[in-house]
Amino acid sequence: MGRSRRFDVRVCISLPQEYVDFLRGMVEAGEAESISQAVRKCIGAAMERFGGRGG
Q: Across the chain, what does the average pLDDT equal?
């Protein structure tokens, strides 16, 4: 089996203000150290909930 490769990619997105407030709330509550980490945590939770990485 092949090795998994990791790519360093920066993505710029626009979110509704409610999402931004939610992510800031995660940081303020200490659930994440930064907005970026909060986004990664949400993506990870969604991947777990909806069946992995796809493909």
A: 88
Scored b (16 or more CB within 10 A) or e, 9-47 reads eeeeeeeeeeeeeebeebeeeeebeeeeebbeeeeeeee
Supply the range of the domain harboring residue 22.
Answer: 17-28+35-49
Q: Are 7 and 18 spatial neighbours (Cβ–Cβ below 8 Å)?
A: no
Contacts made by residues 8-11, CB under 8 angstroms, sequence distance 24+: none
Q: Is the residue at 4 inside a domain?
A: no
Q: Is residue 6 part of a domain?
A: no
